[in-house]
Design goal:
Family: Belongs to the LysR transcriptional regulatory family.
Strand order of the largest sheet: 4-3-5-12-6
Strand content: 15-25%
CATH class of the largest domain: Alpha Beta
CATH topology of the largest domain: D-Maltodextrin-Binding Protein, domain 2
Pfam family, one: HTH_1
Structural class: alpha/beta
Order of helices and strands: HHHEEHEHEEEEEEHEHEEH
Number of helices: 8
Oligomer: single chain
Protein name: LysR family transcriptional regulator
CATH architecture of the largest domain: 3-Layer(aba) Sandwich
GO molecular function: DNA binding; DNA-binding transcription factor activity
Keywords: DNA-binding, Transcription, Transcription regulation
Radius of gyration: 21 Å
């Protein structure tokens, strides 16, 4: 049996909603239809993608990998359609946050300045926010990419924040230092663009728990499994119940960069740089 984008849409919806029933509602189809689509995909691939339970569904390891790649496929398909329609599009990738509290202003100013090009924000995994896979045209990163492959320019700076559960003693502090992390379990998002080289070797927190997305990172910290480090933009954009952020006082601000592949001419890039710089100034 052949499989197509509707199968991937269904699998991603199941991952996002946590159940086949809720995925069906999100897709505008019936629950039996969603179940049939999932079963047909599993038969086509010869693997079990979802473990069914009475009240929820849990992705298998194969299912989690398929969802990650499936999101890339859907993003590429959407971009392909836009190109075929003759639409002008800039795909701006980000990992945890595009511009934090400035993101709405970024989108509004772009529409005012470049009405002929649609700015589409794409939440992508990995330290390059989809650039390496060709899923994004430009990425906003908190690290410097390989200069042999990518060009980049600094458009602003951001402070770093400690993240902890809201019942943690840190939650009462107005600020922290790097020394306060000594011996504490650290939750690390392995797909983040933020580099965790803040402490000398042998000093600092204990890397106790790795996750593969910002959502899992937030959940783990709110559950008290450890503490974390994030940028101010992430703290502004992601404030779930059960989590607190505290400024880290003794580290320099990190650079916020716009990055793009070498050799590519990108319409509107100069305007995007100007907007970012004005927002961060």
């Amino acid at each position: 049996m052949k499989w197509g984008l509707r199968h991937i849409h269904c699998l991603v919806a199941i991952s996002d909603t946590g159940s086949i029933t809720d995925a069906a509602i999100a897709l505008g189809i019936s629950q039996p239809q969603a179940s049939r689509i999932l079963r047909s995909l599993e038969r086509a691939w010869g693997v079990t993608l979802v473990n069914r339970a009475a009240r929820k569904t849990v992705l298998t390891e194969q299912g989690r990998r398929a969802v990650e790649q499936g999101r890339h496929l859907l993003t590429f398909a959407e971009s392909l359609e836009s190109t075929a329609r003759g639409e002008r599009l800039m795909r701006l990738g980000y990992v945890s946050s595009a511009a934090g509290r400035y993101t709405p202003s970024l989108q509004r100013r772009w529409r005012e300045s470049v009405p002929g090009i649609d700015l589409r924000l794409i939440h992508a995994k990995g330290p390059l926010a989809g650039l390496a896979e060709g899923l994004t045209d430009v990425a906003v990163l908190r690290r410097t990419p390989d200069p042999a492959k990518y060009r980049s320019t600094v458009v602003g700076t951001e402070g770093l924040m400690a993240a902890c559960a809201d019942n943690d003693l840190w939650g009462r502090r107005r600020k922290l230092t790097l020394e306060a992390f000594a011996g504490r379990p650290l939750v690390v998002n392995t797909q983040s663009d933020l580099e965790m080289d803040l402490w000398p070797v042998g000093v600092g927190p204990l890397r106790a728990f790795d996750v593969d997305s910002v959502d899992h990172w937030l959940d783990a910290i709110a559950a008290g499994r450890g503490v974390g480090v994030a940028t101010r933009a992430t703290a502004d954009q992601h404030r779930p119940i059960g989590l607190r952020y505290v400024p880290i006082a003794d580290v320099p601000d990190i650079e916020v960069r716009l990055c793009w592949p070498r050799g590519q001419a990108i319409s509107g890039l100069d305007t995007l740089e100007d907007i970012f710089r004005s927002l961060y100034s």
